[in-house]
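I trust your eye. Have a critical look at both lines of this record:
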Amino acid sequence: MTDTALPPAIDSHTLLVAAIIVHDRAAAKVLLIQRGPHAKFAPNHWDLPVGKAEKGEAITTTAIRELKEETGLIVHPAELKVAGIIHGAWGVEAPNGFLTVVFAAENWSGKPTNAEPHKHAQVTWIDSTHVPEEFVSTTRAALIKYLENGAAVIAEGW
């Protein structure tokens, strides 16, 4: 037996995605984005800050990068806690399926802004007891489960 590491698995057929729940527990609010009217998937629906991993990128790096790109907020990797896993059998940009790791962060720096107005209609805090219905179903389910103090494993389309 050898201690030689295997090469990284960077040519996966399943799209790897990160989503992040920014939770202001004291104010009972979570930060959401609203997809724009011309989005390829779920136009005008609410969602968590979310995005695809770049080839060879660690999933925590994806979460931090996407949060900053979409909202301007900065989260330190040590602040990320796993809040759920979503495994979808198909997707608009993932015909072979996708795996989303949902993180939660309660500490960040910066003030939220719609940093991608060409993609999103708005970025705003919402009351965590009133999660909108018109929401991407898988990330909504993960958010609700997290807010109920639980982690979720969500499978869709299997």
About this structure: Residues 10 and 56 are 5 Å apart (CA to CA). The mean pLDDT is 91.
